[in-house]
Amino acid sequence: MTEERKKIDKLYKQIDALAKSGKDQVFEYYLFIDDVVSKSQYGYFEQCLDIYYKINIISYLSIDDVKKKTWPEILFQTNSTFQTKLKKIYDKKLVYQNGYNIYYDDNLLIGQIKELDQYSPEIKYLRENSDFAKAMNKKITYLEVIKPGVATASIINTNDTTLSNDQNLLNNYLVAIDYLLENGYVLLTGHWDDYGYWDDNSTWID
């Protein structure tokens, strides 16, 4: 392995470690890029993104553009800790998600979950970079949950300032899933009470 490739691989391992730690590492990623620039390793960084993520940053107008545009794509391509933990919750509850729709294990649509963002009023400018706002604890993601037979959507927000944003979001998902399963799905006996269904147009039929 050439010295050049060793440097590229080293940068990849650093990026991968940040991405696997979750969305909250966005500020650390920005600092990482600043460090790369200061050490004159930007050329290796360009090659790293191209080789491992198929991201071409040559046409980007500024370092800020590189920071803002590459982090979401890197996260998307990385099996993050958050996604792994969320999948464990879904597997344990015998549910899965397709778009907004939440299905029970036998393909029964039991409701919908949507992620919504809330920003601190004094930092409206951070809306242009929501990941940075979240990393600075200026953004909270809560859940809007639509349950069959219930006219009004429920808002799930168990925000705990002592926890990371990702952990709070996981806790919100856990509460939301239990809410969708209660009554219809009896947790203790493990059977489904058939009291209606969602049709293909997401309309609840009694």
Give your account of this protein's structure:
Helix 1 (3-20) crosses helix 3 and helix 5 runs parallel beside helix 7. The strands form three sheets. A five-stranded antiparallel β-sheet has the order 1-2-3-4-5. Strands 6-7 form a two-stranded antiparallel sheet. The protein has a two-stranded antiparallel ribbon with strand order 8-9. It has helices at 3-20, 26-38, 42-53, 63-77, 81-93, 130-135, 165-181, and strands at 95-98, 101-104, 109-119, 139-146, 154-156, 185-186, 191-192, 197-198, 204-205. It has seven helices and nine strands. The chain is of the alpha+beta class and 206 residues long. The protein is elongated and about 60 Å long. The chain starts with a helix and ends with a strand. It has two domains: 3-77, no CATH class; 81-205, no CATH class.
Report the sheet with the most strands, covering strand number, pairing sense and barrel closure: 5 strands, antiparallel
| Parts with pLDDT < 50 across at least 5 consecutive residues | 120-128, 185-200
Overall body shape: elongated
Structural class: alpha+beta
Radius of gyration, CA atoms, in whole angstroms: 21 Å
Mean of residue pLDDT values: 79
